[in-house]
Amino acid sequence: MHLTNKIKAFTLSEMIVVLIVTSIVVGLAFSVLRLVQKQMYTIQQHHANNVELDRLETILWLDFNNYSTLTYNELSNSIKFSNAMDSVSYKFLDDKIIKKEDTFNVKWLSKKVYFEGEVCTKGYIDALKIETSKTYYERKLFIFKKNDATLFLN
Predict the structure, then answer these.
(1) Which element (helix H / strand E) includes 36?
(2) What's the rounded Cα separation, in Å, for the pair 149 and 111?
């Protein structure tokens, strides 16, 4: 008896080629996925840094304009905001700025305080300039207030 029915199937070499091509495609997909994950992480960090810096700027603006007397102490590297009812202080450390219970994780490169347009090292102030590091794209914050007559009457 003679069998003429052939079973249709793939050869071993065809199967190996398919496995190799599939592994290359999967490898490329995982490498692209890793690149996308890195990009997303960078975007998240950039957003978090901007939010932190914006939060610091907003709170500084509020405090600058809510308190009548602002004094700077170079030795303790701090600014004290005070009025007849309340006072609050900011302490500038190398990689953060602390205000009471709030900690702003902002790495700043330089800080200058001003009184009536002149750079000062202690005493009354009416403006603050902070330059941030490359992590924050070297943003500069300049916060100021208009002096009222009570400062000059004391």
Answers:
(1) helix 12-66
(2) 27
